[in-house]
Amino acid sequence: MKTSTFADLSLLFVALIWGTTFVLVQNAIAFLEPLSFNAVRFSVAAIILGLWLLIFEKHLLQKLDRKLILSGIMLGVWLFIGYAFQTLGLLYTTSSKAGFITGLSVVLVPLLMLGILKQRPSVNSIAGVFAATIGLYLLTMSDVSGLNIGDAFVLICAAGFALHIVFTGKFSSSYPTLLLTIVQILTVAVLSAGSAILFEDWKRAFQPEVIFSTNVITALLITSILATALAFFIQTNFQKHTTATRVALIFAMEPVFAAITAYFWADERLANSALVGCVLIVAGMIFAELPAGKLESIIRRLFVKKEADFKA
To answer: Which segments constitute the EamA domain (predicted)?
Structure first.
């Protein structure tokens, strides 16, 4: 198996983890406010990775320098902006609109790649982004009411996630994966804790009846280990072997996995338009995986065939 293919499959596994843990997080933040939940979640993940570093990878500490720390902090800031503004936006807008606008990071990534890193997306990637964007709309937009301040907050969230993907691609090949992952996760933990102290009833995180309730402790353990420590380690390690645009398209599968999980766990049913949306998101990811020039060849053949049929 090619390295790039294995990298894409690993990142698809990350999207699967995030999608399947969405319901767990929703249940947990009914008891513990979102910023406080993220502060605990990312702190636990940082501790787990930090212990792994000290026990098994202690030699990596020699490579910890100012540039690595600043790069990790930058990644952590963008990641925190994504999580924080998504939470803030949900106070004012619907979850369906928030899901669609967050998914627009799939569009923002190639634009940011062009503007920041001067990297032009391929025709395959453009076709994939177009298909995935329409799919996201059909899957998530059950509410088409007018825009509000919450939608603007969620758009900032989408930009944060997009910039995190772009700069992960830039930094991941320059520094040891474990160190870079720990620094960014620790940054999110610190920023989330500070924000929780300012804006939430953070003391609830220290109440045993809250933190050790079944919904909260289950969500914290699973998201800390799988959806944070493991997921961001995988992203940081494997994104160097693929493009940022393909990563964004792969991560667009998250709401598809969330919908599948809701179907089996919560007995939720998808409308026909949402099913079409899921198919388009998958198609968008497949378009990006096609070899260079393959999509143009397929389209050219289709047009030639149609023209021949028309003349006949």
So the answer is: 6-140, 149-287
